[in-house]
Specification:
Number of domains: 3
Radius of gyration: 25 Å
Largest sheet: 8 strands, antiparallel
Number of strands: 27
Structural class: alpha/beta
Shape: globular
CATH topology of the largest domain: Glutamine Phosphoribosylpyrophosphate, subunit 1, domain 1
Helix content: 25-40%
CATH class of the largest domain: Alpha Beta
Strand order of the largest sheet: 3-2-4-1-10-9-11-15
Number of helices: 19
CATH architecture of the largest domain: 4-Layer Sandwich
Strand content: 15-25%
């Protein structure tokens, strides 16, 4: 949610800010703005709407300067409009700020500032922070750096901020707490971003700020990092492995379509170097420090949000079938609010594409406080979850720009599958012949997905027929239930069609009332186990004149004859291969959304990285 860019150095700042904001559009936003400092004077441009609206507003002759900050806003405090957009400037014009996150005690702070003569133009909590910093700066007669630090000790909540003082335009001040911020290190210049994508074309040397850390970046190439309690932190420069071409569309119409087609590669990258067929083994180096804890776990608790939660449910089926360890899957957003029972012999797996999901991070913190071993599964190296957990596994899916997750989901499931198999083998819960069969299926998943993606027309034709349907139902049994949930979520996210996923047997307990001759029902019917039961579900829908769109394995002879439309996927034999069935559902959602004229990559109201509760 929201995006921050910033720059201090010798280059012209406006193109850096605008291009950087465009790289952050995937995070979701409703307004945008930049502040360009010219001769120590801030020139602030901000508008409701897209960055293209901001560019039109600014025109062909923006102010020139080598210091500036920019922002894309996803509204929390105050509606999306020009006034509430960032950057914000303090009442007396001393400080300009952009901010991600939520200041929870902003109302109390605002009341105190009003009593001291401050007035406010916007409804935002960010303007409160700007004025608080200015008040401390003037009343306390301290440096801009100290004013920011003292102010941050008074606020409660999450923040990622970039601040410039008009009296001290030789420095850019940044800080974070529960909202990501990355510093790009150049030659006597610094870049700032909510992640590395805004500046990867300039530098791949980065500094990841930790919670309650702030950095002062100066024109002479010096960086000072301290905690907000004034403890000195030694900067640690890391190299980010991010290719500029990976964040371009590469000839595809949309990032989502590109990322759907990247899945054979992203899954291969996820398993490469980890699956050793020569020795019939799976090696997950990131888990070695805690492997004994996992082996002896009383239970596994998986936490995640949205698509990551669906991946977690797939993980539940895989772990319980192959590892024989009890698993619970929790919404991270609910986990910490119900005082869960967590023991020291529990293992908590936190799943997040970005590694910055606020609710998932809160669940990690709670689990650690209660003594559990916490493992992270995420896609972004250096992200908060990768630093806060005891151990973890990166998915290696590559940058995912489309808001609707595709390749991150399949990569997450593959990581969970590798974990389940390696533990199952180590605990002697899988017979050697079965283990080899599972290992072979694991490594052939990318090839089978690639094979399916060569013939998308079967999906496109169905999309054309049902693009205007107001509702869809998705049904699946066993490990196909989370596939049904994920398929329904994809359709909701990008086409704005109401869709609901259900365990197929639960249809009789309510949803069957919705079935009529206008209701498309997507049935993931690739089961071998319980196939007769899914046949019964299809018959129940057909008896009420519902429209059946069936996902089946090649060669299916029963459901294919009953369904109105059939989408065949390559044959597979185990629960791991079931992952292939999500691909046609991703494509179905994509084609329907395109045919409806929806903004596929940036659906309304959604954000890629949800860094606030």
């Amino acid at each position: 949610m929201c995006g921050i860019v910033g720059y201090i150095g010798g280059k012209e700042v406006y193109p850096i800010l605008i291009d950087g904001l465009k790289r952050l559009e995937y995070r979701g936003y409703d307004s945008s703005g930049v502040a360009v400092f010219c001769a120590n004077v801030p020139h602030i441009y901000k508008v409701k709407g897209k960055i293209s609206d901001l560019e039109r507003f600014i025109g062909d002759n923006p102010k020139k300067g080598t210091l500036g900050i920019g922002h894309t806003r996803w509204a929390t405090h105050g509606e999306p409009n020009d006034i509430n957009a960032h950057p914000h400037i303090s009442m007396k014009g001393k400080f300009v700020i952009v901010h991600n996150g939520i200041i929870e005690n902003y109302a109390t702070l605002k009341k105190k500032l009003v009593n001291r003569g401050y007035t406010f133009k916007s409804e935002t909590d960010t303007e409160v922070l700007a004025n608080l910093i200015e008040y401390i700066y003037e009343f306390g007669k301290v440096s801009a750096t100290d004013a920011v630090r003292f102010a941050l000790n008074k606020v409660q909540g999450a923040y990622g901020i970039a601040v410039i003082c008009t009296d001290e335009c030789d420095k850019l001040i940044v800080a974070r707490n529960s909202s990501p911020l990355v510093i790009g290190v150049g030659e006597k210049e610094f870049y700032v971003g909510s992640d590395a994508t805004p500046f990867v074309q300039y530098t791949n040397n980065v500094i990841y700020l930790d919670n309650e850390n702030m950095a002062v970046l100066t024109r002479n190439g010096k960086v000072d990092i301290k905690t907000i309690k004034n403890d000195v932190i030694k900067p640690e420069i890391q190299t980010v492995d991010l290719n500029f071409d990976e964040i371009e569309k590469g000839g595809y119409s949309h990032f989502m379509l590109k990322e759907i087609y990247e899945q054979p590669k992203s899954i291969s990258d996820t398993i490469r170097g980890r699956v050793d067929l020569t020795h019939n083994s799976i090696v997950l180096g990131g888990l070695m420090p805690v492997m004994s804890k996992i082996m002896n776990a009383r239970r596994i608790i998986i936490v995640g949000c949205g698509t990551s939660w669906h991946a977690g449910i797939m993980g539940e089926y895989l772990f319980e079938e192959y590892s024989r360890i009890p698993v619970e899957v929790e919404y991270a957003s609910e986990f910490r609010y119900r005082d869960p029972v967590i023991n020291s012999d529990d293992v908590v797996i936190a799943i997040s594409q970005s590694g910055e999901t606020a609710d998932t991070l809160a669940a990690v913190k709670l689990a650690k406080e209660k003594g559990a071993t916490v493992i992270g599964i995420c896609n972004v190296v250096g992200s908060s979850i990768s630093r806060e957990t005891h151990a973890g596994v990166y998915t290696h899916a590559g940058p995912e720009i489309g808001v609707a997750s595709t390749k991150a989901f399949t990569a997450q499931v593959m990581v969970l599958a590798m974990m389940a198999l390696s533990i199952g083998k180590a605990k002697y819960n899988i017979a050697p012949e079965m283990y080899m069969s599972l290992l072979n299926e694991l490594i052939t998943v990318p090839q089978k997905i690639e094979e399916f993606l060569e013939k998308p027309d079967q999906v496109k034709k169905i999309a054309e027929l049902y693009k205007n349907s107001p509702n869809f139902i998705y049904l699946g049994r066993g490990c196909y239930y989370p596939i049904a949930l994920e398929g329904a979520l994809k359709l909701k996210e990008i086409s704005y069609i109401h869709a609901t996923g259900y365990p197929a047997a639960e249809m009789k307990h309510g949803p069957i009332a919705l079935i009529d001759n206008k209701m498309p029902v997507v049935v993931i019917a690739a089961n071998r186990r319980g196939y007769d039961k899914i046949v019964n579900n299809v018959q129940e829908v057909k008896a009420r004149k519902g429209i059946i769109i069936a996902i089946v394995r090649e060669g299916d002879e029963t459901i294919s004859k009953m369904a109105d439309h059939v989408i065949e996927v390559p044959k597979f034999t185990t629960a791991i291969g079931a992952l292939i069935t999500i691909i046609p559902l991703q494509l179905l959602s994509y084609y329907i959304a395109v045919m409806r004229g929806c903004n596929v990559d940036q659906p309304r109201n959604l954000a890629k990285s949800v860094t606030v509760e």
